[in-house]
Design a protein that fits this description.
Amidase signature (AS) enzymes, three-stranded antiparallel beta sheet, alpha+beta, binds 2-acetamido-2-deoxy-beta-D-glucopyranose, about 35% helix, disordered N terminus, single chain, globular, 16 strands, eleven-stranded mixed beta sheet
Amino acid sequence: MLASLWKVCLLLSLTTATFASKLDLLTATVKDLQGLLADGSVTSVELVKAYFDAIEKNNRKGFELRAVIETAPTALKLAEELDKERKEGKSRGPYHGIPILIKDNIATAPELGMNNTAGNFAVLANGLPIKSSFIGTKMTKAGLIIIGKANLSEFANFKGDITNGWSARGNQTQSAYVKGGFLAGGDPCGSSAGSGVGVSAGFAPVALGSETDGSIICPSNRAALYGIKPTVGLTSRSGVIPISATQDTVGPMAKSTWDAAAILSVIAGVDPEDPATSETGKYATDYTKYTHDASFKGLRIGVPRAIFYNATIGGFPEEIVTAANAAVKKLAELGATIVDPVTIPRAVDILTSNNETIVLETEIKVGLAEYLSKYTNTTVGGIATLGDIITYDDRYALSEFRVYAERNNENPTEECCQQLLVASYATSPDSEAYKSALKADTLIGASLPETLDKYNLDVMVLPSEGYTTTLPAVYRSPIGTVPLGYLKSTGQPYGLSFIGRRYSEDVLIRCMAAWEANSPPRKVPPQLASNPPALVYN
Ligand SMILES: *[C@@H]1O[C@H](CO)[C@@H](O)[C@H](O)[C@H]1NC(C)=O
Ligand SMILES: *[C@@H]1O[C@H](CO)[C@@H](O)[C@H](O)[C@H]1NC(C)=O
Ligand SMILES: *[C@@H]1O[C@H](CO)[C@@H](O)[C@H](O)[C@H]1NC(C)=O
Ligand SMILES: *[C@@H]1O[C@H](CO)[C@@H](O)[C@H](O)[C@H]1NC(C)=O
Ligand SMILES: *[C@@H]1O[C@H](CO)[C@@H](O)[C@H](O)[C@H]1NC(C)=O
Ligand SMILES: CC(=O)N[C@H]1CO[C@H](CO)[C@@H](O)[C@@H]1O
């Protein structure tokens, strides 16, 4: 799509006019950049500089979006190298020289100079990661330029009583869409808050988030993005600061379906060190092919009304249900066979079950110790276990809890905001509680494929807010979210989700692309639009 490019004529003198073009970073997609890099209109160095300028303008200053925790000190040098390679006719592939922002829980190679901390000072104390995550290496091999680390709800929202998008290191991420930011209703959702806000604010063309339950889908939905939460195991978690080995997955947050599919294609693949990826060789592919000529014709789409279309239960405004109902009608008009309603037998259990929390509390304790020992130098900061993190947070309560605590008129020197970590400390993977919780979750999760089979459905469709992400979280299956509308009160975006069987990314991407092809362009944040971050080139 060329919506992001417009020609402006800069009159230099009365006799000579030169034509310059302007790339609007609020709308520029990976595909746009790919074209501009390929025909020599822009260089990667120019792109990295332009994104750094955009971050400089509105991350800590300007609108204070706080979507980025740190930028990559080596990104410009890498961009230079990639520009040189391109000139010499060497290409690392279709995404050679494209910038990307990644969540601050994905480790990058030490030579890239970026910390990886999940927003936490204790993890920072161990210094730079000592090796790259599996997907970090894949991105670099593909020629992507990781320009920075995105803010997040600390520990991917498994710290305790903190707000969406808040971390001790990164402070409060705020939606770019809502005037007045977080306190005016601009909750960016989480935990991949900085990834979502960053892409919507033109800090990067595309970002990676991670999801245990909702952390890609919810912030994508609040930033009018196309987001994919992949099947657990499609993308490796090695070198990603974990919550749960059972549920964690890493995926793209983008301005178009094609961009999301492209970045998913880069990071999907078998990693011998992550057993969850063992079946992935059968599925990982170039997912952009499913965006071509995508249509809803011939697809059977179910509408799980109970719980998921209920604004009271989901805790979201009624206008989202109205918009989702209109979307269902539109899907029928576009050729889908709609089955409405469908009943997911055990869905109601997710409203009361505490099983998922038990699983996550148990697995984060094991996973953090493994991450710290394999990917950080524990002798540098002495942080080797969850216990070390809790002790460190308490000792440095002023920085670990302050901003959040002050907002709530709590005493920041008292234990206030790491209840989940503290509860996790008491768990054991050998406990009966853990084993039976895992079993119960497997049973609840199985109701998703059972329902798809019973009604002979390809996918189900539902609003992205509310309890949408929990069944796919425990069933470990994918979700794709697309922009649906904007709240009348604040302008905050909201989305529509498609859910399917494990490894059904092909069908979900087809649905996302068909939706996109039949929808108006996504809106950019109005407060940024009058003076958008841009790159002028000849
Ligand atoms: C990583 O953290 C260290 C310690 O706080 C800091 O000095 C350094 O600037 C950080 N790196 C980046 C790229 O921000
Ligand atoms: C964090 O953000 C708040 C506003 O939300 C600001 O008042 C405070 O100074 C910030 N703290 C730091 C350490 O940047
Ligand atoms: C939504 O759920 C509430 C609470 O369970 C219930 O009272 C209400 O009837 C439901 N609304 C619809 C439209 O089903
Ligand atoms: C776990 O799930 C089972 C089956 O849904 C339920 O009976 C049980 O109460 C749940 N346990 C907890 C602790 O929520
Ligand atoms: C870890 O840090 C210690 C102390 O700074 C240093 O001696 C050692 O070489 C480091 N190990 C690795 C694997 O980087
Ligand atoms: C790149 C950037 O602006 N990083 C900032 C993120 O937020 C923390 C806390 O406010 C700042 O210290 C960083 O400079």
